[in-house]
Amino acid sequence: MEAIYRLKPSELNEDFIKLVRKLFKNKEVEITITSASGSKGKEEFMQAVEDVRLRKNIISFSPDDFKKFSEKLVAR
Fold first, then answer.
1. Backbone angles phi, psi at 16, to 5 degrees
2. What is the pTM of this model?
3. How far apart are CA 41 and CA 39, in angstroms?
4. Which residues of 6-20 are buried (b: 16+ CB within 10 A; e: fewer)?
5. For residue range 3-28, what is the model confidence (pLDDT) as tens digits?
């Protein structure tokens, strides 16, 4: 199971811990805390959509090129 929670530091309380314990029961969990990026992610996404619409900043390759590239990644 995977869950993503976005909340304010003031909302981190005993109830939140109880919820995590209830959802994951006796399973080991990994907790990563990052600062929410706000609208930056949305702006980057919208720019990427616009780039595709304008056919700019597009990287393309053949299926053979993709296969060779992916094989190199797997070999690492």
1. -65, -45
2. 0.42
3. 5
4. eeeeeeeeeeeeeee
5. 888 888 898 899 999 998 998 898 99
Sequence-distant (6+) residues with CB within 8 A of 20 are: 29
Cβ-proximal residues to 57 (8 Å cutoff; 6+ apart), any chain: 51
Banded pLDDT at 40 (limits 50, 70, 90) = low
- Tokens 């990052």 sit on residue: 34
Neighbouring residues of 60: CB distance < 8 A, sequence distance ≥ 6? none
Q: What whole-number distance in Å separates Cα of residue 72 and Cα of residue 18? A: 44
